[in-house]
Amino acid sequence: MRIGDLAAAGQVTAKTIRFYEQAGLLPAPPRTTGGYRDYTPEAVRRLAFIRDAQSAGLTLAEIRSVLEIRDSGHAPCGHVTSLIDQRLAEIEQRMAELRQTRTALRELARRAAATDPDTCSGGEICTILTRP
Known about the structure:
The chain is an all-alpha fold. It has helices at 3-10, 14-22, 41-55, 60-71, 77-113. It is elongated.
């Protein structure tokens, strides 16, 4: 199948497919006698896998590492499990940071609601953001 057909099947652009080839995510396909890329049905499955892995939050480098393991004839399950565990830990850390930020913003909102702009002195930049 040609690149346009693969793009349509994978719901991506031809430019994305060429990028994935250059990034090592999709192997370069054989070419027709006319010089056109000639993709196999396996390319559709691989493209779907890349999209699914991206949806799970994996980076292209991480996806490439999974594909390299599979291409070498080994099951990437242990590696994928490790990547998922790392991503979950990162998300948990980010959620904790966001909870702290929310608490700080709620305090600032409370302070802002209680601030009378007419009482702000010219010597301070903003009493809402300045710690009391």
